[in-house]
Amino acid sequence: MPLHYEVHGPADGEAVLLSSGLGGSAAFWQPQLGALVEAGHRVIAYDQRGTGRSPAALDAGYAIADMARDVVQILDATATPRCHLVGHALGGLVGLQLALDEPARVASLVLVNAWSKPNAHSARCFDARLALLDACGPRAYVEAQPIFLYPAAWCAEHAQRVADEVDHAFAHFPGEANMRARIGALRAFDVDARLGAITAPTLVAAAMDDALVPWTCSQRLADGLKDVTLHFLPHGGHAHSVTEAAAFNRSLLDFLARVSAPGVPA
User: Fold this and answer.
1) 109-133 confidence digits (pLDDT tens)
2) Residue 138: CB partners within 8 Å, gap ≥ 6?
């Protein structure tokens, strides 16, 4: 089944493909969309397979490599030879996989609170989330989601927004089987030994107070990649592209301006 995607901005702009985290929704990137279009980029955002407007039943063996092939499908459907891929968490893993499998399609990578191999802390967080899903069902699962995404003070200050997001997530929950398959895919991902094979220039962005993915995972990425820019924010949580959008957007646009080659379409 075709995936849902959206294309924004000028047709002749360098292509930036936005790949979301576990939620899988194109809407996650709303805080970046206007800034990217204003900077002249052609922006592609999509709902990942088995989420939102890309309904599908995922099997238990669904992997990050399958998600990378989905991106190739979208690039082909939009006549995009290559793109700057911006990925949050799971979306960053998709970017790493694509850079290994189809390096000619990746002009650059932006990895937001991503990782190259499993770690014990994130595994414990996912164990707890799955236990909630098993014992209490989807509503409890999505009620806990902001705890992992956002800093506590931000959640308190934006209580109605958080409540609305929880309601939306529950109304559009992709199903327990799909959620388990997606979590299984990210938990199995490990390209740590292959980071040196990735040649695309990469921005590694992280918030040091991320409660789900330790900032040291981003440091590990930076240490293993060949052509890397590292940008840490002290605060912002796992979704710091939302909570600290202005600071994140500055680093994103500065990086894209630096790695874009004038006259060479991406």
Assistant:
1) 999 999 999 999 999 999 999 999 9
2) 170, 173, 176
